[in-house]
Amino acid sequence: MSVVSTRLKTKEDITQHEISALKTRFNLADAHTHQDQSLTQQKIVDSLPELWYRAQGQTQYKSEQEFIKAFFTFHGQEHALKRHDEIYLVYAASVAMHITATYLRKRDMSVGLIEPCFDNLHDLLKHMEVPLSPLDESLFRSAKDVYANLQTAAAKVDAIFLVDPNNPTGTSMFANGAQTFMEVARYCRDHGKLLILDFCFAAFIKTAGGSRVDAYAILDEIGTQYIIMEDTGKTWPLQDTKCATIMSSRALNADIYSIVTSVLLNVSPFILNVVTQYINDSSDDDFESVRSVLDINREAAQKHLHGNFLKYLTPMVETSVAWFEILRDGVSADDLQAYLMNYDVYVLPGKYFFWNKPQTGQKYIRLALARKPEEFKLAVETIAVALENYHE
């Protein structure tokens, strides 16, 4: 166990853990989608040759615009489509984040970054030498005090960077309507702050049975300056065949566009055709194929793991990950992760999400839910047995 523990503690970030997790029998580390195709999604796979030649026979622009219209319409963000030529497509959300970090560095802007959050946000900004200050996600849980709280917490930063719903906790400004978000947008407008939004998990507002408010319309109506990133990679079982988007308020568009074009020319039209089919499929079945897998696995996780050792933390918005608090005194997330490795199960310790105070995260672990239900059930049953046998 000590050898395993030492090896795990040398990891520098979540991604390095996720790479190692790919070697284990039960990989519950990365939040990428690893579930089977639904019956209708299987038909999309069967049609891949047709989609290949369709992409080959139409313009790049047509493939892009079909994807943009399908994605933003499906998510209820139709206001953005008024500027559809200023929605830029990139290979992955991390590329959109790198573009954003480049903009911030060029402008010598400081950032208030939500904590906890997925660690590559912090790492990308840190590597670009963007000054960072933590904004505790508790600031954004209700509309009542958020404006006043930000007057203190964000007074010295130039930009506010939020993830909604947040990964890993599921905290969301939209859980009880749009008022909290509107207050944040109003604060940013009134105090000249750039609002940066990572909506890469926003699809789970829909899978949880809700509907997304049109955030782009709200921001433009209030007059807030913004950069927004969205993604497809954490939603559909695409084997990382994905596309992300980045869009900014009109005043920032020229600067963002110049950075985008320095990074890439275009996303593969074949990939765009494939992902568009998955979006349309979920539009037809009201996200049932995605929702059902997550519901089954979330129920299994709670049934087998919620108890005296671990406590399932109910999120404001149910996403594709489960966040557990460690209740056993003297057991850190690092300890538990290393122990579970002996059972060929890989989970993520919470310390990487708490980028400013890693020790705070030692009482949490994260489990990915987007897995084949039969395999996920075996995984959580294995964890349950392991916890019964745990001796300090």
TrEMBL record:
It holds the Pfam family Aminotran_1_2. It is an enzyme of class 4 (lyase). One of its GO terms (molecular function) is transaminase activity. Its cofactor is pyridoxal 5'-phosphate. Its EC number is 4.4.1.13. Keywords: Aminotransferase, Lyase, Pyridoxal phosphate, Transferase. It comes from the Bacteria. Residues 61-383 form the Aminotransferase class I/classII large domain. Belongs to the class-II pyridoxal-phosphate-dependent aminotransferase family. MalY/PatB cystathionine beta-lyase subfamily. PANTHER family: PROTEIN MALY. This is cysteine-S-conjugate beta-lyase. It comes from Pseudomonas prosekii.
